[in-house]
Please model this.
Amino acid sequence: MSEPSSEPPGRLHPLAVLVFARKRIGASILPVLIIAFTWRGGFALPVLGVLLAVGLGVLVLEWRRFTYRIEAGRLVIERGVIRHTTRVVPLDRIRGVDLQAPWLHRVLGLVQVEVEAAAGGSSAAELSLAAVSAPEGERLRAALLSARGSKEAATDDPPPLVLYRATPRLLVAGGLTSGRYILTPLIALGVLANFADDLPGAFGERLLSEAADRVPTEVFGLTVLIGVGVLVALVLAAAGSLLTDWSFELTDDGDRLVAHRGLLTRRAVAIDRSRVRGFDLLDSPLRRAFSLVGVRVVAGGVGGGRSGRTALAPVISDDHARALARALDPLTALDAMLAHHPRAALSRRLARAVVLPTVLGVAALALQWWLPAVVLFGLGLGGVPLAIDRYRQLGHRFDGSRLVVREGSLTRRWTSLDPRAVVSYAVQRSPFQARSGLCTIVLHLGQGAGSRRVLDCSEEQAGSLLAALDIPLFAPFVPLSSQRVDAAA
Amino acid sequence: MVVTSVTTRCDEALLHFGDSNRCSSRPTALITRPPGALGQSGGVILREPALQLDPRVRRLWALEWGLVALGAATLTVAIVVPTALADNRLAAVVVALIGSSVALILFGLAVFQPRLLYRRFRYEITELGLYVARGSLWRRWQVVPHARIQTVDTKRGPLERTVGLVSVAVTTASAKGGTDIPGLDPRVADALVEELARRAGIDEGT
Model:
């Protein structure tokens, strides 16, 4: 898509006023409503009318003043009713363009365009066009990203290759096996309880006592109640998974990986292939039992902070996950055996899991707080298998091109990484580690990709790993994609 | 004190300054056993960085901790006196006990902590990057490769100015990946910034 150096400035879709309104009203509707309903004088309606008119005027002005254009290799956004601001972003600094369609946008046929520019990952630096028509959004994305690749976008490229597609069955399985979703009803209950406190007339208490009266006391009734509760939780879990990741589709269009997902809010996240530095496989004990994992990309500028942006596949079978990672980076070493960490690491895991609850439990016993004591001792006891598994999962490997690290039990993260993604590294040693000859290596990845650890490896392992890693860190920066070409050749 | 600029006297230490920043001639090893197992320089994997901070940094840190301690003491007095005057004996005694012990601990830190930290803080510019080690019990050896350094800044806070020292901050693309070196003589800091910026390929230092 060849862009002339100057084009008429673009405006947001007129319906953007509605979107602005929704954003503004979200904050200010309550005081307005309170005024409207509590003011007994005859002024309420006229005042409300004036407020509405003024508000609408401001929104329309806001829309009128918001213009964007692409000129001379830069994106220029001008906005502001009272204070006029102009933002200029060179196109080669744009790291990604996301199109999002929350439900209101979808109903109106609009998309929200979010531009991510290289600016240290601060959210304030992000640029957002609240609402443009869907075709305009696609055009903008192509125009904004084409400058960098200097490649004609979507002309004679082969149709995008589908790398992963979430079937409803997979999503249901993922929802059922994810601890996160199982917690959802608990959170909902918590919110409800909080909310009930604010309701007038001791509504919450009445509801509770009412419910307490009706709780069956015999064993059969309780079993049924618990069964129904579990069923509801499972249904909610499956529904939550379906809602967020409905028809999740990962496609590869040459330069970019694009992930579409969502039932009500349809989101598209584009990840520049040249920024891909590695992959995380995430799972939990429950998912391990069913050989299911989630795949995330380790990439600069995709913002690990916001959930879901790095997801390549929310739920996928173990084998397919590895195949997917290999398809994107043939050097990925997620199949290889890992070097185990010394036994001393097990003692450390155990100490961490058991010592604190036990000490607190003893203290609770001494104070004759029986229930907390029982809970704390239970925690300590439950920590033992967890600690053993956490130890068993520890591992790392470096084969000269890809670094693999693994840690965690309840959420296990198995990472394959191009060591050139490492921005800086540190070796840390606590007094406890020093006594047992262990240390931890922290690898900082930069641009919002976070850091990965080699937890509790022996000093010898740390030494040989660092010695091996130094050489790739010296090498000039080469993106994965170009290396892929080398590997294929 | 004279900056003797870039030499390679201390093993691989590339920056070696005048005598006030002593170069520890014997690198202490993080890993000393088993010797030679890794086939590199006698089993030493991470030797300690060579250079120390300016000794005046002890005064700077003592000043910082002392000020905090003084603040705690003042706050205690400011609370204890009115409560005592208001005939609230018990509260006054409790506050006085807690406040004075906190202030005492802080004063103790002001006396001992700077020496310890000074002795344990080392830095060096190596072929690979900026190498900084800090902390005594919880120790951390950090390497920021030259190619990954984005900015090199010098900073002078009001306290640092009274002692006549400068700190150097190095940032990378990772928010946590950067590091800082507190308490340097301005001339040493300038040389350090220049060297780091040159190796990182940054046009303008500071």
Summary: Chain A touches chain B through 33 residues (CB under 8 Å).
